[in-house]
Amino acid sequence: MRRDQLEHAIRTACQIIGRSEVIVVGSQSILGTFDERDLPVAATMSLEIDVLPIADTAEETARLADQIEGIAGEFSPFEDLHGSSIDGVDLSTSVLPDGWRDRLVRVSNPNTAAPGGTPIFTGWCLDKEDLCVAKLCAFREKDREFVGALIEARLVDPAVIAERLGCVDGIHQRSARSAAEWLISWRPPQA
């Protein structure tokens, strides 16, 4: 995935739900911090953009997420046309550390604007280490490979990730401990 594809997804998601801002919580939120040319291949492989609508209630968030998914999700005309899909998600999708909202990375530029140049929509992407916390708490092989590639490329700080793993909600502490153990034992793949 490329940064321009992320920007297009932000614009599209905002237009679908009639809102000026969304939060990108999946792996492609790394493109809020880095250009794809600066990232290892393992960090840009996903063709799905996980978008969390910003709403006042969990119910409204879920409704808007379903709206995004229905129009631009997997197997949609949007995916057929652009080669990527936008998955509408809710707050239960990612395990995030305390303070994550204060560290969001803003993506808002002419590429996120509606046709004609206004309005310019905003995508708030997870901070790179907060993203790694979410990926490691999910603990799927692809998530560990994603984080490992970022560590190996020295694009994220394992000490910050470890610290933030200790700041997830209590109900997620077990997965955070497993993630922390993996982080301590992580070694780059042998060539």
Draw up the topology in text.
Layout: H1 3-17, E1 21-24, E2 48-53, H2 58-72, H3 77-82, E3 85-88, E4 105-107, E5 122-125, H4 128-138, H5 141-152, H6 158-165, H7 173-185
Parallel strand pairs: 1-5, 2-3
Antiparallel strand pairs: 1-2, 4-5
Helix pairs in contact: 1-2, 4-5, 4-6, 4-7, 6-7
How would you characterize this protein structure?
The chain has 191 residues and is an alpha/beta fold. The chain folds into 2 domains: 3-125, no CATH class; 129-185, no CATH class. The chain contains 7 helices and 5 strands. The two termini are 25 Å apart. The relative contact order is 0.17.
Per DSSP, the total helix count is 7
- The low-confidence parts are none
Strand order in the largest sheet? 3-2-1-5-4
Q: What is the residue-averaged pLDDT?
A: 93
- Gross geometry: globular
Q: Topology as H/E string?
A: HEEHHEEEHHHH
Major sheet attributes: 5 strands, mixed
End-to-end separation in angstroms reads 25 Å
**Gyration radius, in Å:** 16 Å
Tell me the domain tally.
2
Give the helix proportion (percent range): 40-55%
Structural class: alpha/beta
| Beta-strand segment tally | 5
Quick take:
The chain is α/β, with parallel strands linked by helices and 191 residues long. It has helices spanning 3-17, 58-72, 77-82, 128-138, 141-152, 158-165, 173-185, and strands spanning 21-24, 48-53, 85-88, 105-107, 122-125.
List its salient traits.
single chain; 191 residues; alpha/beta; 2 domains; five-stranded mixed β-sheet; 7 helices; globular
